[in-house]
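TA notes, week 10

Several of you asked for a full example with nothing omitted. So below is the full record: structure tokens for the whole chain, then the designed sequence directly under it. When grading your own attempts, check the secondary structure regions first.
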């Protein structure tokens, strides 16, 4: 878990799950930390809107 007081630093090659909460929904995106910045690796479907099924 990342927080302001956490001494752990992100390093190249690490993968991080960003899990923002939207209302009561939890949306997760996976990023790989690269030399030139983050790379989205969970781009199977867009997460800018709530995914609904049914």
């Amino acid at each position: 878990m990342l927080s302001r007081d956490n001494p752990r630093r992100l390093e190249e090659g690490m993968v991080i799950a960003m899990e923002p909460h939207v209302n009561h929904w939890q949306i997760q995106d996976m990023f790989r930390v690269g030399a030139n910045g983050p790379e989205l690796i969970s781009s199977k479907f867009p997460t800018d809107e709530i995914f609904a099924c049914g």
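Residues 2 and 8 are 8 Å apart (CA to CA). Use that as a sanity check on your answer.
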